[in-house]
């Protein structure tokens, strides 16, 4: 599922989502949502109907463009009269993946798809991919996985291994450490990182894993790693009471500054 608004910023997310759907042999749902389409708003009925027809045409022409380059792609359309962040989040309950861009149309609707992307990444029920403008192709072929100090990222780790296997590329597992202190600390960190990935290494023997322990902040390390990566995978802890995920400062920094698409994978719920 991908959010569509006709902007150049959203075009990269659209292309990435279409390519990923082809790679997976999955259907693609194009979603356009706007509160301007809501009955009873400031627009008169005839103006509202013209606007709805314009947005339907946007979706239909977008589908035609995708099928012209990818004739085997199955494409569905969804037009909704509500806030785009709310619509995409609700639809994520039944989707295997949601894709959004970093910048949208702006103008009259004041739609910044960047804010929509941040909201969906923090509240989505399935993996959410945020595609930076101009970064839809990535600058490399490998997948980068960010691993935190508690290693409570079973869903993200599993997703990253499966994606690397699907693409036939190596996986770079990264855990940043600001200074190692004692000489033996680096060895200990490497062992902990290896242990955190051991189960998936066993389940995905064809995936070549590279372990990275850069001596810098996590946000800086991940953003720098995105410069030559095809994809960056982060875990986010899901809260039980329905208030979204815990992205934290690192997650927000990476989503705003990554040079490649970022996948946010919600982890098991917690209080």
Automatic annotation (TrEMBL):
Q: Which residues cross the membrane?
A: none
Q: In the record, which residues are listed under signal peptide?
A: none
Coiled-coil residue windows: none
Which Pfam families does this entry report, sorted A to Z? Usp
* InterPro entries reported for this sequence: Rossmann-like_a/b/a_fold (IPR014729), Universal_stress_UspA (IPR006015), UspA (IPR006016)
Using the record's annotation, list all stretches that form the UspA domain.
1-132, 142-265
The entry's family comment says: Belongs to the universal stress protein A family.
What is the recorded name of this protein? Universal stress protein
Q: Which organism is it from?
A: Actinocorallia libanotica
């Amino acid at each position: 599922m991908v959010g569509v608004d006709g902007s150049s910023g959203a075009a990269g997310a659209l292309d990435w989502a279409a390519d990923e759907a082809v790679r997976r042999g999955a259907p693609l749902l194009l979603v356009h949502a706007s509160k301007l389409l809501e009955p009873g708003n400031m627009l008169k009925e005839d103006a509202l109907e013209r606007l709805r027809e314009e947005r339907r045409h946007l979706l239909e022409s977008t589908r035609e463009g995708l099928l012209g380059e990818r004739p085997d792609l199955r494409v569905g359309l969804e037009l909704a009269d509500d806030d785009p962040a709310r619509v995409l989040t609700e639809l994520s309950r039944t989707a295997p993946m949601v894709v959004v861009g970093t910048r949208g149309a702006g103008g009259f609707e004041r739609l910044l798809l960047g804010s929509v992307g941040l909201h969906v990444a923090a509240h989505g029920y399935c993996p959410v991919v945020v595609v930076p403008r101009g970064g839809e192709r990535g600058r490399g072929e490998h997948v980068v996985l960010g691993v935190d100090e508690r290693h409570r990222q079973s869903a993200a780790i599993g997703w990253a291994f499966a994606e690397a296997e699907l693409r036939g590329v190596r996986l770079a597992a990264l855990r940043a450490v600001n200074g190692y202190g004692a000489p033996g600390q680096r060895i200990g960190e490497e062992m902990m990182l290896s242990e955190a990935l051991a189960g998936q290494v066993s389940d995905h023997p064809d995936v070549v894993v590279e372990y990275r322990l850069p001596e810098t902040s996590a946000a800086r390390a991940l953003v720098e790693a995105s410069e030559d990566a095809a994809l960056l995978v982060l875990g986010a802890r899901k809260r039980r009471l329905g208030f979204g995920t815990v992205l934290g400062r690192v997650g927000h920094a990476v989503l705003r500054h990554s040079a490649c698409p970022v996948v946010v994978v919600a982890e098991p719920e917690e209080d």
